[in-house]
Amino acid sequence: MANITTARKLGMLARFAAQRAGSSRTFGAVWKGGRAIAAHWGRVLRQLWLEVTGFVFLALAALGALSLVREYARYHSGESNNSRVLVAIIFTLVFAWFGLSSFWRVRRKR
What gap in Å lies between CA 68 and CA 62, rounded to an integer? Predict the structure, then answer.
């Protein structure tokens, strides 16, 4: 008899087990149930991901708004130029858009 490697033996055993399990109604039902659970959890985790990232982006937008208020006060007192105020406005608007669009995606997925 030829010398067969352990990996090849395991591969043959896996193929045999898959063939036998494929003909079992119980295994098919468990497999379909597992796929349904995995799909549901995938949707839940995607929704959680979108909500968490939306919150983080809105928190960054709030920090940008605070910076905007501070830079605007400095601009009026003559300590800052208008480019810093413009950067604060753009930062705040971009991160607010990212945060809101993330929450809109969650609503659209439902």
Answer: 10
**CA dist., res. 80 & res. 50, Å (int):** 37
Residue with tokens 């395991």: 10
Q: Is 107 exposed, middle or buried (0-12, 13-18, 19+ CB in 10 A)?
A: exposed
The C-alpha atoms of residue 82 and residue 71 are separated, in whole angstroms, by 9
Backbone angles phi, psi at 37, to 5 degrees: -65, -45
Rounded Cα–Cα distance for residues 40 and 107 (Å):
16
Q: Which DSSP string corresponds to 90-104?
A: HHHHHHHHHHHHHHH
What is the pLDDT tens value at each position of the chain, 110 positions in all? 467 788 888 888 888 777 776 667 887 788 789 899 999 999 999 999 999 999 999 999 999 999 999 999 999 998 888 899 999 999 999 999 999 999 999 888 66
- Specify the length of the chain in residues: 110
